[in-house]
Specification:
Elements (H helix, E strand, L loop, with lengths): L37 E4 L13 E9 L12 E4 L2 E8 L10 E10 L5 E12 L9 E4 L5 E4 L9 E6 L2 E7 L6 H10 L18 E7 L5 E8 L11 E9 L4 E5 L1 E6 L11 E6 L6 E10 L5 E9 L7 E8 L6 E2 L5 E2 L25 E4 L5 E5 L7 E5 L5 E6 L6 E4 L5 E5 L3 E5 L8 E5 L5 E9 L4 E8 L4 E8 L3
Antiparallel strand pairs: 1-6, 2-32, 3-4, 4-5, 5-6, 7-8, 8-9, 9-10, 11-12, 12-13, 13-14, 15-16, 17-18, 18-19, 20-21, 22-23, 23-24, 24-25, 26-27, 27-28, 28-29, 30-31, 31-32
Amino acid sequence: MLRFKTGRTPSGTAARIFAGLIFIIFAGGLTKRALPEMFASRPAKDAGIPGAARIEVILPATGVAPCSLNVFSTPLAWFDGAVYTVSVEEPSGPDNGIDLRTFVWKGVRQKSGKWLWTKKLIENRTLHDRYHTGPSIGIDRYGYIHVAYNMHNMPWQYAVSKRPGDISSFEFRGERLNMEELELVEWKNLTPFARFGTSAIPGTQITYPAFFNDRYENLYVTYRFATHPGLKWKKRGFAGAIARYDPDKRSWRALGGRVSVSSGQALLPEGLESSDIAAFAYRDGWSVYLLRLFFDVENHMHISWLWRKGGAGKDCSDPCYLCSKDSGRTYIGADATEWLPPMHPGQAGVAQGAVAGKKFYAPAQVTADAVGRPLMLLNPMGLPRILVRPDKEGIWAVAENSPRGASAIYIDDAGTKWAFATGITVFRKNVQTGFKWQTVYSEPSGRFGYPKILPLPRKKRILVYAQSLDGSQIKIFSIRTGY
Protein backbone atom coordinates (compact mmCIF):
# COMPACT_ATOMS: atom_id res chain seq x y z
CA MET A 1 0.00 0.00 0.00
CA LEU A 2 1.24 3.50 -0.80
CA ARG A 3 1.72 5.79 2.17
CA PHE A 4 0.25 9.26 1.91
CA LYS A 5 2.09 12.11 3.59
CA THR A 6 1.01 15.72 3.75
CA GLY A 7 4.18 17.45 4.80
CA ARG A 8 7.70 17.09 6.02
CA THR A 9 8.81 19.25 8.92
CA PRO A 10 11.33 18.24 11.61
CA SER A 11 9.01 19.62 14.27
CA GLY A 12 6.86 16.49 13.91
CA THR A 13 3.83 18.34 12.57
CA ALA A 14 4.25 16.92 9.09
CA ALA A 15 1.03 14.93 9.11
CA ARG A 16 -0.98 18.07 9.74
CA ILE A 17 0.62 20.37 7.16
CA PHE A 18 -1.84 21.03 4.35
CA ALA A 19 -4.30 18.48 5.72
CA GLY A 20 -6.98 21.17 5.72
CA LEU A 21 -6.62 22.29 2.14
CA ILE A 22 -10.30 22.34 1.23
CA PHE A 23 -9.57 22.87 -2.44
CA ILE A 24 -7.91 19.44 -2.64
CA ILE A 25 -10.71 16.94 -2.04
CA PHE A 26 -10.66 13.63 -3.80
CA ALA A 27 -11.35 9.96 -3.37
CA GLY A 28 -10.46 6.78 -5.18
CA GLY A 29 -8.27 3.75 -5.19
CA LEU A 30 -4.83 3.13 -6.53
CA THR A 31 -4.25 2.09 -10.12
CA LYS A 32 -1.14 0.37 -11.38
CA ARG A 33 -0.47 1.24 -15.00
CA ALA A 34 2.62 0.63 -17.08
CA LEU A 35 3.01 3.02 -20.00
CA PRO A 36 5.02 2.30 -23.12
CA GLU A 37 8.13 4.33 -23.66
CA MET A 38 6.61 5.66 -26.88
CA PHE A 39 3.00 6.03 -28.00
CA ALA A 40 0.86 8.30 -30.12
CA SER A 41 -2.26 10.31 -29.33
CA ARG A 42 -4.97 11.00 -31.84
CA PRO A 43 -5.86 14.52 -33.00
CA ALA A 44 -9.00 15.97 -31.48
CA LYS A 45 -11.74 17.92 -33.19
CA ASP A 46 -13.06 21.32 -32.16
CA ALA A 47 -15.20 21.45 -29.07
CA GLY A 48 -18.81 21.33 -30.20
CA ILE A 49 -19.83 24.53 -28.45
CA PRO A 50 -20.97 27.58 -30.44
CA GLY A 51 -18.16 30.12 -30.49
CA ALA A 52 -15.86 27.65 -28.73
CA ALA A 53 -12.11 27.87 -28.91
CA ARG A 54 -10.32 25.21 -30.93
CA ILE A 55 -9.29 22.38 -28.63
CA GLU A 56 -6.55 19.87 -29.37
CA VAL A 57 -5.82 16.91 -27.10
CA ILE A 58 -2.04 16.63 -26.89
CA LEU A 59 -1.67 13.91 -24.26
CA PRO A 60 -4.74 11.74 -23.59
CA ALA A 61 -5.62 10.56 -20.11
CA THR A 62 -2.52 8.73 -18.87
CA GLY A 63 -1.90 6.85 -15.63
CA VAL A 64 0.27 8.32 -12.84
CA ALA A 65 0.78 7.69 -9.12
CA PRO A 66 -2.35 8.91 -7.26
CA CYS A 67 -0.30 9.74 -4.16
CA SER A 68 1.41 12.67 -5.92
CA LEU A 69 -0.75 15.66 -6.83
CA ASN A 70 0.79 18.35 -8.99
CA VAL A 71 -0.62 21.26 -7.01
CA PHE A 72 2.35 23.60 -6.51
CA SER A 73 4.72 22.87 -9.43
CA THR A 74 5.00 23.88 -13.09
CA PRO A 75 4.58 20.67 -15.12
CA LEU A 76 4.56 22.13 -18.67
CA ALA A 77 7.18 23.46 -21.07
CA TRP A 78 7.32 24.19 -24.80
CA PHE A 79 10.17 24.64 -27.26
CA ASP A 80 10.39 24.61 -31.05
CA GLY A 81 6.99 22.98 -31.50
CA ALA A 82 7.48 20.23 -28.93
CA VAL A 83 5.58 19.94 -25.64
CA TYR A 84 7.36 18.72 -22.50
CA THR A 85 5.88 17.52 -19.24
CA VAL A 86 6.80 15.58 -16.10
CA SER A 87 5.09 12.85 -14.10
CA VAL A 88 5.41 10.83 -10.91
CA GLU A 89 4.51 7.19 -11.44
CA GLU A 90 4.19 4.12 -9.29
CA PRO A 91 7.18 1.93 -8.39
CA SER A 92 8.26 -0.82 -10.73
CA GLY A 93 8.69 -3.28 -7.84
CA PRO A 94 7.68 -3.72 -4.18
CA ASP A 95 6.73 -0.51 -2.44
CA ASN A 96 9.11 0.84 0.23
CA GLY A 97 7.96 4.48 0.40
CA ILE A 98 11.01 5.85 -1.43
CA ASP A 99 10.43 4.33 -4.83
CA LEU A 100 8.06 6.40 -6.93
CA ARG A 101 9.46 7.13 -10.38
CA THR A 102 9.82 10.63 -11.83
CA PHE A 103 9.74 10.90 -15.63
CA VAL A 104 10.32 13.62 -18.22
CA TRP A 105 8.11 13.47 -21.32
CA LYS A 106 8.45 14.95 -24.81
CA GLY A 107 5.59 15.17 -27.30
CA VAL A 108 6.05 15.97 -31.01
CA ARG A 109 3.17 16.58 -33.40
CA GLN A 110 3.32 14.37 -36.49
CA LYS A 111 2.18 15.32 -39.99
CA SER A 112 -0.87 13.13 -39.42
CA GLY A 113 -1.90 15.35 -36.53
CA LYS A 114 -1.08 12.70 -33.95
CA TRP A 115 1.29 13.47 -31.08
CA LEU A 116 4.16 11.04 -30.60
CA TRP A 117 5.39 10.85 -27.00
CA THR A 118 8.62 9.53 -25.49
CA LYS A 119 9.67 9.58 -21.85
CA LYS A 120 12.83 9.32 -19.76
CA LEU A 121 13.26 8.16 -16.16
CA ILE A 122 14.92 10.87 -14.03
CA GLU A 123 14.57 9.47 -10.50
CA ASN A 124 13.40 6.11 -9.13
CA ARG A 125 13.65 7.10 -5.45
CA THR A 126 10.92 9.75 -5.35
CA LEU A 127 9.42 10.13 -1.88
CA HIS A 128 5.76 9.39 -1.24
CA ASP A 129 4.60 12.92 -0.53
CA ARG A 130 1.14 14.03 -1.60
CA TYR A 131 1.85 17.69 -2.36
CA HIS A 132 5.55 18.52 -2.25
CA THR A 133 7.80 16.27 -4.29
CA GLY A 134 6.10 16.70 -7.66
CA PRO A 135 8.53 17.82 -10.40
CA SER A 136 8.71 21.12 -12.29
CA ILE A 137 10.11 21.56 -15.79
CA GLY A 138 11.49 24.54 -17.70
CA ILE A 139 13.44 25.19 -20.90
CA ASP A 140 16.05 27.88 -21.48
CA ARG A 141 16.28 29.93 -24.66
CA TYR A 142 18.77 27.51 -26.21
CA GLY A 143 16.42 24.58 -25.71
CA TYR A 144 18.07 22.81 -22.76
CA ILE A 145 15.54 21.12 -20.48
CA HIS A 146 15.70 21.83 -16.74
CA VAL A 147 13.95 19.60 -14.20
CA ALA A 148 13.64 20.07 -10.41
CA TYR A 149 12.08 17.20 -8.47
CA ASN A 150 11.76 15.12 -5.28
CA MET A 151 12.30 17.88 -2.72
CA HIS A 152 10.62 19.05 0.45
CA ASN A 153 13.08 21.07 2.52
CA MET A 154 15.95 19.21 0.87
CA PRO A 155 19.05 20.12 -1.17
CA TRP A 156 18.48 20.76 -4.86
CA GLN A 157 17.52 17.70 -6.88
CA TYR A 158 18.02 19.24 -10.28
CA ALA A 159 19.11 18.05 -13.72
CA VAL A 160 19.66 19.61 -17.16
CA SER A 161 19.52 17.85 -20.52
CA LYS A 162 22.89 17.32 -22.19
CA ARG A 163 21.53 18.43 -25.57
CA PRO A 164 18.85 20.94 -26.59
CA GLY A 165 15.39 19.45 -26.98
CA ASP A 166 16.68 15.96 -26.15
CA ILE A 167 15.39 14.03 -23.14
CA SER A 168 17.59 10.97 -23.66
CA SER A 169 20.33 12.06 -21.23
CA PHE A 170 20.63 14.53 -18.36
CA GLU A 171 23.41 16.02 -16.26
CA PHE A 172 22.73 16.12 -12.53
CA ARG A 173 23.52 19.60 -11.14
CA GLY A 174 22.17 19.30 -7.62
CA GLU A 175 23.43 17.65 -4.43
CA ARG A 176 23.24 13.87 -4.42
CA LEU A 177 21.46 12.23 -1.50
CA ASN A 178 22.05 8.67 -0.35
CA MET A 179 19.32 6.27 0.76
CA GLU A 180 20.05 6.87 4.43
CA GLU A 181 19.37 10.59 4.00
CA LEU A 182 16.18 9.93 2.06
CA GLU A 183 15.00 7.57 4.78
CA LEU A 184 15.56 10.25 7.43
CA VAL A 185 13.29 12.58 5.47
CA GLU A 186 10.62 10.02 4.66
CA TRP A 187 10.36 8.11 7.93
CA LYS A 188 11.61 10.47 10.64
CA ASN A 189 10.60 13.87 9.22
CA LEU A 190 14.18 15.06 9.61
CA THR A 191 15.95 17.43 7.22
CA PRO A 192 19.52 17.55 8.55
CA PHE A 193 20.95 19.47 5.61
CA ALA A 194 22.99 22.21 7.27
CA ARG A 195 25.42 22.76 4.40
CA PHE A 196 25.18 26.17 2.76
CA GLY A 197 24.30 24.68 -0.61
CA THR A 198 26.62 23.63 -3.43
CA SER A 199 24.15 23.13 -6.30
CA ALA A 200 24.00 25.06 -9.55
CA ILE A 201 20.99 26.97 -8.15
CA PRO A 202 21.66 28.90 -4.91
CA GLY A 203 20.20 27.73 -1.63
CA THR A 204 19.32 24.55 0.25
CA GLN A 205 16.31 22.96 1.96
CA ILE A 206 14.29 23.71 -1.16
CA THR A 207 10.51 23.49 -1.59
CA TYR A 208 8.09 24.58 -4.35
CA PRO A 209 10.45 25.07 -7.31
CA ALA A 210 8.62 26.60 -10.29
CA PHE A 211 10.00 27.61 -13.71
CA PHE A 212 8.92 30.59 -15.83
CA ASN A 213 10.02 32.07 -19.17
CA ASP A 214 9.90 35.73 -20.12
CA ARG A 215 8.89 36.98 -23.57
CA TYR A 216 12.45 36.39 -24.84
CA GLU A 217 12.57 32.81 -23.50
CA ASN A 218 14.90 33.69 -20.62
CA LEU A 219 14.42 31.14 -17.85
CA TYR A 220 13.60 31.96 -14.23
CA VAL A 221 12.95 29.73 -11.22
CA THR A 222 11.21 30.59 -7.95
CA TYR A 223 11.47 28.57 -4.74
CA ARG A 224 11.53 28.62 -0.95
CA PHE A 225 14.79 27.91 0.88
CA ALA A 226 16.36 28.02 4.33
CA THR A 227 18.65 31.01 4.90
CA HIS A 228 20.05 29.50 8.11
CA PRO A 229 19.80 25.73 7.53
CA GLY A 230 21.95 24.74 10.51
CA LEU A 231 19.56 26.12 13.15
CA LYS A 232 16.51 24.57 14.77
CA TRP A 233 13.43 24.34 12.55
CA LYS A 234 11.64 27.54 13.56
CA LYS A 235 14.82 29.60 13.30
CA ARG A 236 15.89 28.51 9.81
CA GLY A 237 14.43 31.57 8.10
CA PHE A 238 12.52 30.19 5.10
CA ALA A 239 12.83 32.85 2.41
CA GLY A 240 11.48 33.24 -1.10
CA ALA A 241 13.90 33.33 -4.03
CA ILE A 242 13.85 34.27 -7.70
CA ALA A 243 16.81 33.17 -9.81
CA ARG A 244 17.60 33.87 -13.47
CA TYR A 245 19.55 31.54 -15.73
CA ASP A 246 22.43 32.62 -17.97
CA PRO A 247 22.57 30.01 -20.78
CA ASP A 248 25.94 31.24 -22.04
CA LYS A 249 27.62 30.81 -18.66
CA ARG A 250 25.32 27.93 -17.70
CA SER A 251 24.82 29.53 -14.30
CA TRP A 252 22.03 30.84 -12.10
CA ARG A 253 21.96 34.21 -10.31
CA ALA A 254 19.54 34.81 -7.45
CA LEU A 255 17.80 38.21 -7.46
CA GLY A 256 17.11 40.32 -4.37
CA GLY A 257 18.85 41.64 -1.29
CA ARG A 258 21.52 39.94 0.80
CA VAL A 259 20.89 37.98 4.00
CA SER A 260 23.91 37.40 6.22
CA VAL A 261 24.79 33.88 7.38
CA SER A 262 27.35 32.96 10.05
CA SER A 263 29.19 29.70 10.61
CA GLY A 264 26.89 29.03 13.55
CA GLN A 265 23.83 29.23 11.32
CA ALA A 266 24.97 27.01 8.44
CA LEU A 267 27.81 24.69 7.50
CA LEU A 268 29.86 27.11 5.41
CA PRO A 269 32.73 26.28 3.06
CA GLU A 270 35.99 25.60 4.87
CA GLY A 271 37.70 28.74 6.11
CA LEU A 272 34.61 30.99 6.08
CA GLU A 273 33.20 32.39 9.29
CA SER A 274 30.42 34.32 7.55
CA SER A 275 28.80 34.72 4.19
CA ASP A 276 25.53 35.91 2.67
CA ILE A 277 22.87 34.78 0.22
CA ALA A 278 20.36 36.61 -1.95
CA ALA A 279 16.67 36.50 -1.04
CA PHE A 280 13.74 38.20 -2.71
CA ALA A 281 11.50 37.99 0.40
CA TYR A 282 12.65 37.20 3.92
CA ARG A 283 11.82 37.90 7.54
CA ASP A 284 12.87 36.05 10.70
CA GLY A 285 9.99 34.00 12.07
CA TRP A 286 8.09 33.94 8.77
CA SER A 287 7.89 31.61 5.77
CA VAL A 288 7.38 32.73 2.18
CA TYR A 289 4.85 30.87 0.04
CA LEU A 290 4.57 30.32 -3.70
CA LEU A 291 6.30 33.10 -5.57
CA ARG A 292 4.65 33.32 -9.00
CA LEU A 293 5.77 35.26 -12.08
CA PHE A 294 4.05 36.61 -15.19
CA PHE A 295 5.64 38.56 -18.06
CA ASP A 296 3.44 41.03 -19.92
CA VAL A 297 3.68 42.28 -23.53
CA GLU A 298 6.46 44.71 -22.52
CA ASN A 299 8.31 41.88 -20.79
CA HIS A 300 7.70 43.45 -17.39
CA MET A 301 7.87 40.88 -14.62
CA HIS A 302 4.83 40.71 -12.32
CA ILE A 303 5.41 38.90 -9.02
CA SER A 304 2.99 37.58 -6.40
CA TRP A 305 3.54 35.71 -3.13
CA LEU A 306 2.15 35.14 0.38
CA TRP A 307 3.52 34.86 3.91
CA ARG A 308 2.94 32.70 6.93
CA LYS A 309 4.02 33.62 10.43
CA GLY A 310 5.66 30.94 12.54
CA GLY A 311 6.69 28.42 9.93
CA ALA A 312 4.92 25.98 7.64
CA GLY A 313 1.15 25.57 7.52
CA LYS A 314 -1.94 25.91 5.40
CA ASP A 315 -3.16 29.35 6.56
CA CYS A 316 -1.16 32.10 4.85
CA SER A 317 -1.55 35.86 5.04
CA ASP A 318 -0.33 39.10 3.52
CA PRO A 319 -0.65 38.44 -0.23
CA CYS A 320 1.78 40.73 -2.01
CA TYR A 321 2.57 42.10 -5.47
CA LEU A 322 5.52 43.80 -7.15
CA CYS A 323 6.57 44.57 -10.72
CA SER A 324 10.06 44.79 -12.22
CA LYS A 325 10.47 46.54 -15.58
CA ASP A 326 14.21 45.80 -15.85
CA SER A 327 14.59 42.05 -15.29
CA GLY A 328 14.87 42.24 -11.52
CA ARG A 329 17.14 45.24 -10.94
CA THR A 330 14.38 47.47 -9.48
CA TYR A 331 10.87 46.83 -8.16
CA ILE A 332 7.70 48.90 -7.82
CA GLY A 333 4.28 48.26 -6.34
CA ALA A 334 0.97 48.90 -8.09
CA ASP A 335 1.01 52.42 -6.61
CA ALA A 336 4.50 53.06 -8.09
CA THR A 337 6.19 52.86 -4.66
CA GLU A 338 9.76 51.61 -5.06
CA TRP A 339 10.88 48.69 -2.93
CA LEU A 340 14.27 47.16 -2.18
CA PRO A 341 14.41 43.40 -1.50
CA PRO A 342 14.46 41.41 0.59
CA MET A 343 10.77 42.18 1.05
CA HIS A 344 9.14 41.95 4.48
CA PRO A 345 5.56 41.11 5.55
CA GLY A 346 3.29 44.13 5.25
CA GLN A 347 5.19 45.58 2.30
CA ALA A 348 3.49 45.79 -1.11
CA GLY A 349 0.36 44.09 0.25
CA VAL A 350 -2.80 43.66 -1.83
CA ALA A 351 -5.33 42.37 0.74
CA GLN A 352 -7.45 45.45 1.42
CA GLY A 353 -11.14 46.19 1.84
CA ALA A 354 -13.32 43.09 2.16
CA VAL A 355 -10.39 40.68 2.49
CA ALA A 356 -8.22 42.72 4.86
CA GLY A 357 -7.00 40.54 7.73
CA LYS A 358 -8.18 37.32 6.09
CA LYS A 359 -6.22 34.10 5.90
CA PHE A 360 -5.52 32.51 2.53
CA TYR A 361 -4.58 29.18 1.08
CA ALA A 362 -1.17 29.38 -0.54
CA PRO A 363 -2.06 28.87 -4.22
CA ALA A 364 -2.40 32.27 -5.86
CA GLN A 365 -1.62 33.58 -9.31
CA VAL A 366 -0.88 36.83 -11.12
CA THR A 367 -1.43 37.94 -14.71
CA ALA A 368 -1.55 41.34 -16.43
CA ASP A 369 -3.29 42.99 -19.38
CA ALA A 370 -1.73 44.63 -22.43
CA VAL A 371 -1.07 47.90 -20.58
CA GLY A 372 0.55 46.11 -17.64
CA ARG A 373 -2.32 46.37 -15.16
CA PRO A 374 -2.13 43.31 -12.88
CA LEU A 375 -4.89 40.93 -11.89
CA MET A 376 -4.41 38.47 -9.02
CA LEU A 377 -6.31 35.34 -8.08
CA LEU A 378 -6.51 34.74 -4.32
CA ASN A 379 -7.97 31.87 -2.30
CA PRO A 380 -9.29 33.23 1.03
CA MET A 381 -10.12 30.57 3.59
CA GLY A 382 -13.86 30.05 4.01
CA LEU A 383 -14.70 32.24 1.00
CA PRO A 384 -14.85 31.76 -2.77
CA ARG A 385 -11.72 32.39 -4.81
CA ILE A 386 -11.54 36.04 -5.81
CA LEU A 387 -9.93 38.22 -8.47
CA VAL A 388 -8.36 41.44 -7.18
CA ARG A 389 -6.80 44.33 -9.06
CA PRO A 390 -5.58 47.88 -8.34
CA ASP A 391 -7.30 51.10 -9.41
CA LYS A 392 -5.46 53.98 -11.09
CA GLU A 393 -3.99 55.03 -7.73
CA GLY A 394 -2.75 51.53 -7.04
CA ILE A 395 -5.35 50.71 -4.39
CA TRP A 396 -6.30 47.04 -4.56
CA ALA A 397 -9.92 45.89 -4.42
CA VAL A 398 -11.95 42.78 -5.18
CA ALA A 399 -13.01 42.85 -8.82
CA GLU A 400 -15.23 39.74 -8.72
CA ASN A 401 -15.40 36.12 -7.66
CA SER A 402 -13.39 33.72 -9.79
CA PRO A 403 -15.84 32.01 -12.18
CA ARG A 404 -16.94 28.67 -10.74
CA GLY A 405 -13.99 28.80 -8.36
CA ALA A 406 -11.43 28.77 -11.19
CA SER A 407 -7.90 28.26 -9.86
CA ALA A 408 -5.95 29.44 -12.93
CA ILE A 409 -6.28 32.71 -14.85
CA TYR A 410 -4.67 34.42 -17.82
CA ILE A 411 -5.13 37.63 -19.80
CA ASP A 412 -4.00 37.22 -23.40
CA ASP A 413 -2.38 39.97 -25.48
CA ALA A 414 -5.72 40.89 -27.05
CA GLY A 415 -7.23 41.56 -23.62
CA THR A 416 -9.37 38.42 -23.32
CA LYS A 417 -9.54 37.00 -19.80
CA TRP A 418 -9.34 33.23 -19.44
CA ALA A 419 -10.20 31.14 -16.39
CA PHE A 420 -9.76 27.40 -15.76
CA ALA A 421 -11.88 25.54 -13.22
CA THR A 422 -12.35 21.96 -12.07
CA GLY A 423 -14.03 19.85 -14.69
CA ILE A 424 -11.93 20.92 -16.57
CA THR A 425 -14.08 23.91 -17.56
CA VAL A 426 -12.62 26.84 -19.51
CA PHE A 427 -14.13 30.33 -19.48
CA ARG A 428 -13.35 33.49 -21.41
CA LYS A 429 -14.49 37.10 -21.09
CA ASN A 430 -14.05 39.92 -23.64
CA VAL A 431 -16.00 42.40 -25.76
CA GLN A 432 -17.40 39.56 -27.90
CA THR A 433 -18.94 37.94 -24.81
CA GLY A 434 -20.37 41.24 -23.55
CA PHE A 435 -17.71 41.24 -20.85
CA LYS A 436 -19.43 38.28 -19.22
CA TRP A 437 -17.81 34.92 -18.53
CA GLN A 438 -18.62 32.44 -21.29
CA THR A 439 -17.98 28.70 -21.10
CA VAL A 440 -15.90 27.75 -24.13
CA TYR A 441 -14.96 24.21 -23.20
CA SER A 442 -16.05 21.65 -20.67
CA GLU A 443 -14.30 18.30 -20.25
CA PRO A 444 -16.96 15.65 -20.99
CA SER A 445 -16.03 13.41 -18.06
CA GLY A 446 -15.97 16.26 -15.55
CA ARG A 447 -13.46 14.34 -13.47
CA PHE A 448 -10.30 16.40 -13.96
CA GLY A 449 -9.02 19.30 -11.89
CA TYR A 450 -5.85 20.98 -10.63
CA PRO A 451 -5.38 22.93 -13.90
CA LYS A 452 -1.91 24.24 -14.72
CA ILE A 453 -1.55 26.47 -17.75
CA LEU A 454 1.30 27.55 -20.01
CA PRO A 455 0.38 30.49 -22.27
CA LEU A 456 2.09 30.62 -25.67
CA PRO A 457 1.35 34.21 -26.75
CA ARG A 458 3.16 34.05 -30.09
CA LYS A 459 1.28 30.88 -31.02
CA LYS A 460 -2.03 32.21 -29.66
CA ARG A 461 -2.40 29.03 -27.66
CA ILE A 462 -2.69 28.01 -24.04
CA LEU A 463 -1.40 24.61 -22.95
CA VAL A 464 -3.51 23.10 -20.17
CA TYR A 465 -2.33 20.32 -17.85
CA ALA A 466 -4.94 18.61 -15.68
CA GLN A 467 -4.96 15.77 -13.18
CA SER A 468 -7.96 13.60 -12.37
CA LEU A 469 -9.64 14.31 -9.06
CA ASP A 470 -8.57 10.92 -7.73
CA GLY A 471 -4.99 11.68 -8.79
CA SER A 472 -4.66 8.60 -11.01
CA GLN A 473 -4.40 10.26 -14.44
CA ILE A 474 -3.07 13.35 -16.18
CA LYS A 475 -3.91 14.85 -19.57
CA ILE A 476 -2.78 17.81 -21.65
CA PHE A 477 -4.71 19.81 -24.22
CA SER A 478 -4.32 23.16 -25.93
CA ILE A 479 -6.86 25.88 -26.51
CA ARG A 480 -6.68 28.55 -29.20
CA THR A 481 -6.88 32.23 -28.24
CA GLY A 482 -7.11 35.29 -30.44
CA TYR A 483 -10.77 35.11 -31.47
